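Q: What does the predicted 3D structure of Phosphoribosyl-AMP cyclohydrolase look like?
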Amino acid sequence: MIEINFDKMGGLIPAVIQDYENGEVLMVAFMDKKTLDLTLRDGKTWFFSRTRNKYWMKGEESGNTQDVMEVLTDCDADTVVIKVKQNGPAACHTGNRSCFYVKWEDGQWVEHSNPLFNPAEVYKK
């Protein structure tokens, strides 16, 4: 039986969130044992925010939740890939479909941004 190894990074593991239908990487976040257990139990993605030092469910503020379709771990059992159905237009808090919209081109990082919602309106911060 395989056990997820939370010991290598101080109790956290990277979670790669991928669109179930087309394979697009939507985001990468961190999970601890509690958030992985919540994700497996609830069928929604839960994470641990290192900057805010708190648990959060993806979409709890924006409504852009993620339905878990499949969960995989790597050969070292210290990273997970979670394939999801993205509810709402975007996974990124910037309003972009994916958090990976900045590309290395001609010696510099270039934003290829196409926000699908206005974060200021959604998060009202």
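A (community wiki): The structure tokens above were generated from the sequence. The beta strands are 13-19, 25-31, 46-49, 54-57, 66-73, 80-86, 102-105, 108-111. Residues 16 and 81 are 5 Å apart (CA to CA).
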